[in-house]
Design goal:
The mean pLDDT is 90. Helices cover 27% and strands 31% of the residues. By secondary structure, the protein is an alpha+beta fold. It is elongated.
C-alpha cells in the first residue's frame, strides 16, 4: 500500500487548526484526526459526537480517505439556523 496526502482542519472564531499529513492508503477519517494531534490541541472536541466531513460533505468516522481529501471537524451550532432565519424575517416584517 502507498501513501496519500490529506489535511485535517478545525476552525474556531479566533484561530484555526490546519495540518497536512501523509498517511497510508485505507486510512479512516477517525484515524487521520487522531494522528493530526487536533484532539490534543483542542481537547474539548469529543470525536465520538462531533460532526465531521470531507470538503463540506458530512461523513462518518469510518470513511476511508482518498488522496488530497480535506478532513473537517465541525463545531456545534450556537443557534438553530431555522430559528435565526425566522427572527430575521420577523424583524424585517416589523420594520416594513
Amino acid at each position: 500500500m502507498g501513501e496519500i496526502s490529506v489535511q485535517v482542519c478545525y476552525a474556531l472564531p479566533d484561530r484555526q487548526f490546519l495540518k497536512a499529513l501523509r498517511v497510508q492508503e485505507g486510512m479512516t477519517l477517525r484515524r487521520a484526526i487522531e494522528l493530526s494531534d487536533l484532539l490534543q490541541v483542542v481537547p474539548e472536541i469529543d470525536i465520538d459526537t462531533a460532526r465531521v466531513g470531507i470538503y463540506g460533505k458530512l461523513k462518518t468516522l469510518d470513511t476511508v480517505l482518498r488522496d488530497h481529501d480535506r478532513v473537517e471537524v465541525y463545531r456545534p451550532l450556537i443557534a438553530d439556523p431555522k430559528d435565526a432565519r425566522r427572527r430575521r424575517a420577523g424583524k424585517k416584517a416589523r420594520e416594513a
